[in-house]
Design a protein that fits this description.
single chain; 234 residues; alpha/beta; Rossmann fold; six-stranded mixed sheet; two-stranded antiparallel sheet; 8 helices; globular; transferase; kinase activity
Length: 234
């Protein structure tokens, strides 16, 4: 794991608070945020640090639960409403992943229902989660009403739109082409996140907000009364 000393210190502190949580079932944790905010990288970093503490981690992404292309793009390739409402199969996220790990669940979970590259549904064999596992799921729109009550802890990755768009374009322009990538961020991803903010207020609802504008110097805000506490003694 390669990161600045300030980022390492901050994430170690956060991972320590997560590792200390005790529940009667696996901890279901969402890492939410706008497109290209750094959710996947942060989730991978936290997963490694939590595993170092001795706790098992189940690591996956909401992207394993896409809907078929015909449904995702039914409102148009660049539709913000289409991205917000039609991109993922939220029922599958609940029934295959989150509900089995809930209190009273059988802990037999699956981490994906769809192969995006092949545009095909898949059937994974179920796996049995250790009771002390931490599930880390990254993705956009994770605090929609269909999912919100199924998370035990939510981290919201906060970035300005300009910075996240710049990162996303740097990542996607070679794969998609410059003009398509620009159009997607301007018309689909950005406006879809605006819909999400208006409807769900995700930063306010999260347990922790991590500002990720400066990757080397992330800033954490803990929600008063949340499950994670700013323990300054470690």
């Amino acid at each position: 794991m390669s990161m600045s000393s300030n980022r390492m210190t901050t994430l170690r502190h956060l991972a320590r608070q997560i590792s200390r949580l005790q529940m009667s079932h696996p901890i279901r944790m969402a890492v939410d945020g706008r497109t290209a905010s750094g959710k996947t990288t942060l989730s991978d970093e936290l997963a490694e640090l939590i595993e170092r503490s001795g706790r098992p981690v189940i690591r996956t992404s909401i992207d394993g639960f896409h809907r078929p292309k015909a449904e995702r793009y039914a409102r148009g390739r660049f539709s913000a409403a289409g991205y917000y409402n039609d991109a993922r199969d939220l029922s599958a996220v609940r029934t295959l992943l989150l509900e089995p790990l809930a209190p009273g669940g059988n802990r037999l979970y699956r981490t994906a229902s769809f192969d995006l590259g092949l545009d095909l549904a898949i059937v994974q064999p179920s796996e049995l989660a250790p009771v002390d596992a931490v599930l880390l799921v990254d993705g956009t729109f994770l605090q929609r009403p269909e999912l919100r009550s199924h998370w035990d802890v939510v981290i919201f990755v906060e970035t300005s739109r300009g910075i996240s768009d710049s990162r996303g374009l740097g990542r996607d322009r070679d794969r998609l082409g410059e003009q398509v990538a620009l159009k997607l961020y301007a018309e689909r991803y950005g406006p879809a996140f605006d819909l999400y903010e208006d409807n769900c207020n995700p930063a306010e609802m999260a347990d922790v907000v991590l500002n990720n504008d400066d990757l080397d110097n992330p800033i954490i805000r803990f929600k008063t009364g949340g499950r994670l506490k700013p323990n300054l003694n470690g």
